[in-house]
Design goal:
By secondary structure, this protein is mostly helical. It has 19 helices and no strands.
Length: 309
């Protein structure tokens, strides 16, 4: 079988090959018993923590709710990395037993200085939790000092969007977070919880960080009707970060006006800007042309002329 052909990679002497083999099995054989058995068989033999975490994550994509007990050794592992991987895997598996284990981790998270484990639990419960879990998550966030960790704040945004009956008050605070990773997560959460109007309204927010996050969420949510608003922000907003966020959003919505903006971004002195421009150009064309603005302009124009969108 194909699983049998790929499984030997799990025992390859090169750690990266073992990790990539696990990921390949997970990508190709979701919820496949034979693939799950092959990955699980490596749990006891793997000594590289990074590879073992990759195995656990892969197993989460392959297992069914009946297999939840296979993750128990990692739920209680002394390794923060493995506990976080187990939480993510349990979220992928889903079901009542997985949810119960995740709630137990919140009650006794162990050593978790960067909120990696509890943040992973928040994200997992967003996928397999219930409405009643929203309060439990908020208590864990408050009592654990989650407000001091960007990952905790970003994960909270995702969790309340999925579980809280009224997530707007929490998301309203988080979308104004000074960390762009948090504000972006909160803006996208508005879309995911069925409140795109909250995102659209914040395109006019007086705070630049909120406008930038809202612009990105417009693209992530596929709100194509807001394309004219994005064009206005990309060309006329007084804040450079907002203009660039809107330009990238236009590109993700495949608005033709974004092509020229991407080419201009290649000449930026800001590494984050030109790197994002290169990455977006590569995504759209499949080419690798470095920072050659003329070459990218020609490639993007050819893409339009060829009718590829």
């Amino acid at each position: 079988t194909v699983v049998a052909a790929l499984a030997p990679g799990l025992a390859d002497p090169v750690p990266d090959v073992r990790a990539r083999s696990a990921g390949a099995l997970a990508a190709a054989f979701a919820r496949d018993a034979a693939a799950f058995a092959a990955v699980r068989a490596r749990f006891g033999a793997e000594r590289d923590e990074a590879v073992l975490a990759a195995l656990v994550l892969a197993a989460g994509a392959l297992a069914t709710p009946a297999d939840v007990a296979a993750f128990d050794p990692f739920v209680t592992s002394p390794s923060v990395r493995l506990r976080a991987a187990a939480a993510t895997a349990l979220g992928d598996v889903g079901g009542a037993a997985a949810r119960a284990r995740l709630l137990a981790v919140l009650a006794a998270p162990g050593d978790d200085p960067d909120f990696a484990v509890r943040g992973a639990v928040f994200l997992a419960l967003a996928r397999c939790g219930e409405r009643a879990d929203a309060g439990t998550i908020l208590v864990a966030y408050r009592d654990g000092g989650g407000a001091n960790r960007w990952f905790a704040r970003a994960a909270l945004a995702t969790a309340v969007a999925a579980l809280d009956a009224d997530p707007v008050p929490v998301l309203d605070r988080l979308v104004a977070d000074e960390d762009a990773r948090v504000s972006s997560a909160a803006a996208l959460a508005f879309v995911r919880c069925g409140r795109p109007g909250e995102v659209v309204r914040r395109l006019s927010d007086p705070r630049p960080g909120v406008r930038a996050a809202a612009a990105a969420a417009v693209a992530d949510g596929g709100l194509v009707d807001e394309t004219p608003r994005l064009r206005a922000l990309a060309t006329g907003d007084p804040d450079r970060a907002v203009r660039w966020s809107a330009a990238l959003a236009l590109s993700r919505l495949d608005d033709p006006a974004a092509d020229e903006m991407l080419v201009a971004g290649l000449a930026s002195n800001d590494p984050q800007v030109w790197a994002a421009a290169v990455a977006e150009c590569r995504r759209k064309t499949g080419l690798s042309l470095g920072r050659d603005a003329d070459a990218w302009a020609a490639a993007l124009a050819a893409r339009r002329k060829g009718g590829r969108r």
